[in-house]
Specification:
six-stranded mixed sheet; alpha/beta; seven-stranded mixed sheet; 20 strands; Aldehyde Dehydrogenase, Chain A, domain 1
């Protein structure tokens, strides 16, 4: 007899991977309960290191999404009325529980996402920090009071929870992107529905269980895993009870969701694609610049919207920088993320490898010189070697598309005006990097770059205390910092006389 989805067996996987996923929840989290999808459908989760199926997870549909909205509505009034101090205490408990289970969470991320375990550990620490930050911010909701200029009345400005929030997160940071959205939503007094990426649902579900253990009331957080993201999210956005959408993902999908949200005039926060320039001036410290390039390019294996995508190097330092950078890239250990010596794990899917392969082949066909890498690894899993390309043509696709892989195209420049023009020649504007020993020059260039964030002499900018977000086609709104909680608050003005 052909097995039903609920009866599917999991192919043999490594004992280590099997042990990691054994305790991970695999069903929907709605109204404080772990429930199967209404149609009892499931989908498979694959280990990118091997291509093996490691788990089957409930595949929710529109009815499940609306059930999650029902649960969020049922919990909304009580959570809104919960004191800021109590919300703060719950979020701080989430912070401590994540730290207590940090190693398991890191291994779970590695198994379903593929990233090296060191990267996964860093992500868990980053994810936990959003719980701590917004535990502290929950008691600091802003307000204003003062006399009107006319003297006829007083002006009172309050900030109230915006309402039920739908949160859509990507696969590349499955823990941090979830907590970066859920923590400020809860701090503000909102209830929410999280729709994690189908490639990495286990981490989100595990965090949901941690939040349940921390005392988050039933219905305040709901998690719907699904392979039918478009219809499910659309149905929730067209439910008049939903008042907020926060999305992290591609610009193309973001445009679609903005159109969907317009029908009910739903407030939107959109953290979209990037095409980050990495600018190195002649006067930069070479060692610092190369170290920064390795972090900006290879954090998360290059699968990050903040990853340096285009390396612009002034001609005086071009040869030395390219040589040193390529040497560092060439010696990275590539392998399964759980292996103790792995520095670069697999990409997320075979399609991701094919995209990187296409971009590299196009660049070489248009005259780029391959310095190191430039090929996938044979065998199981979705691997691509760390790659550096020189003499990249301005019309190469790799300079226009978000690479999302371990590939670094290097381009020469001569003047400050030239590099600013090249760096800004993109529809994206998320983050930029500038390396120079002249702080006045670095700050001047940072001011001219069309991006929401700039790193000066450092290859990472993300911080729970800093506003994360972009300009142009890279998004709307900010996450992290005090600004992140404001995204979940409505401003109410009261004119009062007495």
């Amino acid at each position: 007899m052909k097995p039903t989805p609920a009866q599917k067996t999991t192919p043999l996987v490594s004992p280590a991977s099997a042990a990691v996923v054994r305790d991970a929840p695999t069903r929907l989290f709605i109204g404080g309960q772990w429930v199967s999808a209404k149609e009892d459908r499931t989908f498979e989760v694959v280990d990118p290191a091997t291509g093996d199926v490691i788990a089957t997870v409930s595949d929710g549909d529109i009815a499940d999404g609306i059930s999650a909205v029902d649960a969020a509505e049922k919990a909304a009034a009580a959570w809104k009325a919960t004191s800021p101090r109590r919300r703060s205490d719950v979020l701080m408990k989430c912070f401590h529980l994540v730290l207590e289970q940090a190693e398991w969470l890191a291994q779970l991320i590695t198994v379903e996402n593929g990233k090296a375990l060191a990267d996964a550990r860093s992500e868990v620490a980053y994810a936990a920090e959003f719980f701590r930050w917004y535990a502290e911010e929950a008691v600091r909701a802003p307000g204003e009071f003062g006399p009107a200029p006319s003297g006829a009345n007083h002006i009172i400005v309050n900030h109230e929870p915006i309402g039920i929030a739908v949160l859509v997160t990507p696969w590349n940071f499955p823990a941090a992107m979830a907590t970066r959205k859920m923590a400020p939503a809860l701090a503000a007094g909102c209830t929410c529905i999280l729709k994690p990426a189908a490639e990495t649902p286990l981490t989100a579900l595990a965090i949901g269980e941690i939040m349940r253990q921390a005392g988050v009331p039933a219905g305040v957080v709901n998690i719907v895993t699904t392979r039918k993201a478009g219809p499910v999210v659309s149905a929730m956005l067209h439910d008049k009870r939903v008042r907020k959408l926060s999305f992290t993902g591609s610009t193309g999908v973001g445009r679609t969701l903005l159109r969907e949200a317009a029908d009910q005039v739903v407030s939107c926060s959109m953290e979209l694609g990037g095409n980050a320039p990495f600018v190195v001036f002649d006067d930069a410290d070479l060692e610092t610049a190369v170290a920064g390039a390795m972090v900006a390019k290879m954090r998360n294996g290059g699968e990050a919207c903040t990853a340096a995508n285009r390396f612009y190097v002034q001609k005086g330092i071009l040869a030395d920088f390219t040589r040193r950078f390529a040497e560092e890239m060439a010696v990275l250990n590539v392998g399964p993320g759980l292996a103790p010596d792995t520095q670069l794990g697999p990409l997320i899917t075979e399609a991701a490898v094919a995209k990187v392969e296409r971009l590299v082949d196009d660049a070489i066909a248009k005259g780029a010189r391959l310095i190191t890498g430039g090929s996938r690894l044979n065998g199981d899993g979705f691997y691509y070697l760390p790659t550096v390309l020189a003499n990249v043509s301005p019309d190469a696709e790799i300079l226009r598309e978000e690479i999302f892989g371990p590939v670094a195209p290097v381009i020469a420049f001569e003047t400050e005006d030239e590099v600013v023009q090249m760096a800004n020649d993109t529809e994206y504007g998320l983050v930029s990097y500038v390396f120079s020993s002249d702080l006045k020059r670095a700050l001047s260039v940072a001011g001219r770059l069309e991006s929401g964030m700039v790193g000066i002499n450092r290859g990472v900018v993300s911080d729970a205390a800093a506003p994360f977000g972009g300009m142009k086609q890279s998004g709307l709104g900010r996450e992290g910092s005090h600004h992140g909680m404001l995204e979940y608050l409505e401003t109410k003005y009261i004119a009062a006389s007495w």
